[in-house]
Amino acid sequence: MSEPHRDPVGAKLGMWLFLLSELVLFGGLFLLYSVYRFQYAPEFHQGSEELSLSLGTLNTFILLSSSLTMALGIAALQKGQRSLSFLLTFATMVLGLVFLGNKAVEWTAKFHHGFYPNSPELLAQSKGIILFFGLYFTMTGLHGLHVLAGVGVLLTMLVLLARGRVGPTRFSPLDNAGLYWHLVDIIWIFLFPLFYLITG
């Protein structure tokens, strides 16, 4: 049986093109945020004070840590340390799940207080507050979906690692997964100050 066709360079190029499309998507949302932030600066500051800075900070630390474990996992695989790479990739996936858990706690608190899209309590607020929380739920929700997708990709990588389908001479699948995960982390690095660190 012939060896399956492999093109790591093409796969890497494809991943970079995909990441570029993701940057365009979030870039548009960041631009929209900037326009409304300029128009409703006081209301955005007020909305920011309703968010949990401690949870936002914790989630930032979690994702930064996950980027480190992801990078170390790829480096370990390149050195032939497949078991260590498996553990580090597993740690990255767990950190991603913890991030989602914390975000679920934060969203639940907002829903409990009636601050969710199209809720009577939110619609009774000023236009700036409505726009702030609309962007907050849209952008952090979209980011959360990307984290969830990343967790699924990492789970696939764990299966490939366990089966010996990736290794020192074929690490591009894990490397591409790492690129995606780093993008997810970088997007959060922008989201955190935009929503949690707004000054008047």
Key terms:
mainly alpha; Four Helix Bundle (Hemerythrin (Met), subunit A); 0% strand; 200 residues; elongated
Radius of gyration, taken over Cα atoms and rounded to an integer in Å: 19 Å
Overall mean pLDDT: 92
**Ends distance:** 67 Å
| CATH homology superfamily name | Cytochrome c oxidase, subunit III, four-helix bundle
Work out the number of β strands.
0
Known CATH architecture: Up-down Bundle
Write the CATH fold name. Four Helix Bundle (Hemerythrin (Met), subunit A)
Return the structural class.
Answer: mainly alpha
Shape: elongated
Q: Please, how many helices?
A: 7
The fraction of residues in strands falls at under 5%
Largest beta-sheet characterization: none
Q: In the residues, how many domains can be counted?
A: 1
What is the string of helix and strand elements?
HHHHHHH
Write the layout of secondary structure elements.
Blueprint: H1 8-39, H2 41-49, H3 53-78, H4 82-112, H5 120-123, H6 127-162, H7 172-196
Helix pairs in contact: 1-6, 1-7, 2-6, 3-4, 3-7, 4-6, 6-7
